[in-house]
Amino acid sequence: MNAKQLLGAISAMIVRIVVAAAIIAVVFKLAISAYDFGYQIFADVPMSEGSGRTVSVVVSEGQSSKELAKMLEQKGLIKDANVFYIQEQLSDYKDMIKPGTYELSTAMNSEQMLAILCDVQAEQEEVQ
Predict the structure, then answer these.
(1) Which of 14, 37, 69, 116 is surrounded by the fewest CB atoms within 10 Å?
(2) Within 10 Å of residue 64's Cβ, how many Cβ atoms?
(3) How does 28-48 read in b/e, with b if 16+ C-beta sit within 10 Å?
(4) What CATH number labels 54-127?
(5) pTM (predicted TM-score)
(6) What pLDDT digit, counting tens, does each position of 77-112 carry?
(7) Please, is 20 exposed, middle or buried when counting C-beta atoms within 10 Å of its C-beta (0-12, 13-18, 19+)?
(8) What are the DSSP calls for 37-90, one per residue?
């Protein structure tokens, strides 16, 4: 094997190693992002501990869950609108959000907010 062939073989091997390392880094980064997204969906942690701050939210007739999630994120009640939307879609409250004005707190988790937005307590009182 002459020097040119040896140099070419070494260069090709280096390129393969760099490409493999780049692919591994991208897959690792995607795996971490997917885990973090899944954790946020199922951990359901409130924005703040303690009493939090109360925010008034107005849900209008025909407002989609995605629009509501974006509004809650803008008001600082949730960290990520996409996470809240998925939580709503996976919950028992799917497509049950009612129009109205609600008082929500940054100390509430998504499940608690959804219970209020779906007016679950009023329904339970009507049944009794």
Answers:
(1) 14
(2) 11
(3) eeeeeeeeeeeebbeeeebbe
(4) 3.30.1490.480
(5) 0.74
(6) 999 999 999 999 999 999 899 999 999 999 999 999
(7) exposed
(8) HHHHHHH---SSSTT--EEEEEEPTT--HHHHHHHHHHTTS-S-HHHHHHHHHH
